[in-house]
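Example 3.
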Amino acid sequence: MKRMKRRELIFKVITYTLIFLLLFPLVVLVVWSFTKNWPWPNIIPREFGLRGIKYVFGPSSKSLKILLFSLWLSSVVTIVTLLISIPAAKALGVYDFKGRRIFKMLVLAPVIVPSVAVSMGIHVTFIRLGLANTFLGVVLVHLIPCIPYGIRILTNVFEIIGESMEMQARVLGANPVKAFLYITLPLISPGLVSAGSLIFIVSFSQYFLTFLIGGGKIITFPMLMFPYIQSGDRMMASMYSVVFIVSSLIFLVIMEKTVKTYYKAENYFYI
Amino acid sequence: MYKWLKPYVLLLPAMMVILGIFIFGLAMGLIQSFGYFPVVGLNKITLKYYREVLTDKTFLSSLGFSFYISLISSIMSVVIGVLLAYSIVQSESKKGIEKVIYKLPIIVPHAVAALLVYNILSQSGILARILYSFGIIGDQSEFPSLIFDKKGIGVILAYIWKAIPFTTMVVYTILSNVNDKLLEVALNLGADRRQVFWYVLLPLIMPSIFSCFIIIFAFSFGAFEVPYLLGPTSPKALPVKAYIEYNNPDLTHRPYSMVINMSLTFISVILVWLYHKSFKLISRYDG
């Protein structure tokens, strides 16, 4: 019995040490963002201040507008990706057909193949089609890193639920639209939340794709943040990062709550 | 009705995007890497660019650097991630904050991860300040440069910080769903905890560990932000090098950048192939 206790203690220590190491940098980030004066070699800042947050949300600043625009862009990307992924995931999860493995490999490939290579290759074509430097162009190119996550998670969901429930509804006289809306959609809603969250995160943190295809015309929040990080302006960079993290957290919670009020979704991360 | 057509119709929108942007983009890159770029008057298909790039010393050292960074990052992330997942399951706390809070780094973008590393490891960072206050170092300059360094320590730490929670999440989901009966049987038959881990749990999580490894490796091999922000000036990571070549105002320079991109892609594809090969070997455990 005593041995058991010691064992448990060791694992508790490992757990909390690792979690501390993961979270400590974030604590430092928050402290930096509310710092006014923090000279070497002080371990805590000499003076705290609100210059960062005032700058970000100040009346002359465009940051808030860009933040909202960023959230909007990533929401569009999330919805489009889900709309594309639901049918594809159903095909891969429920049916057996010729070429299934190849299709599966193709839709998952963008996780492995660097998007740097894809975006530089497509750039000239996008310029010629008038898609470069546009909202539509950036949304389209964001789909590439997002689709694998959407399809992968939803395929697992469809593999679990199968087609039998929808079939029953059809047999009982529901048309395909009704069967989908009232049977399939509620069943996959927990999967939609986890897929949607992941897709949103991938799109919202995208820097390089937006930078290249948006060509400086489409400006998202990570692009605003990047120069501060690059120049080593720790206070401003930290403040932008905190705003970024907090807004994505809020957004994810709202999304989960909204879906949950519609469907009593319980099971969170499906993967 | 044409029932056999249904899955293909369902896959159509996804395939339009994948073929129209992903595959097409790669194909365009491939064509340009062979020197065919009519927009700027390059019309001849040639292997010249491949020959030049692949024998270039800076390219080879970049390739080595990228490979080294990805390998170390993915191995460390997987090992620590599994350790954390196993520890959380073993410490059996009922409150469960630790089951959620470790996921936080997942929503943090890589550029911010780079900033976190900078805040802590730069010569005026927190770690240097703490060492100074203990009198371990006497001055900033005595703190070893762990970022912008040739060993890529800063880059690796940023990737590890991001990837541990990802591995932990995947492995934890499986570990917490493993049927307790399986473990009881093993214990009843006289296995000790260590044997249960190595012979029961590890084979069960091995496929996921493997796919985490591949995903982390491929990401850190092909991503631009972290090595751009924290990497040394030389050798540069391959994606950074590709972008610098791409940015060259002389457009006839493009094929060089595309050769680098194709090398990145080629290695990633080899990786996926290896993954499928070895997956078959590993999944024998499943039977």
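Chain B has one domain: 34-286. Chain B has a mean pLDDT of 89.
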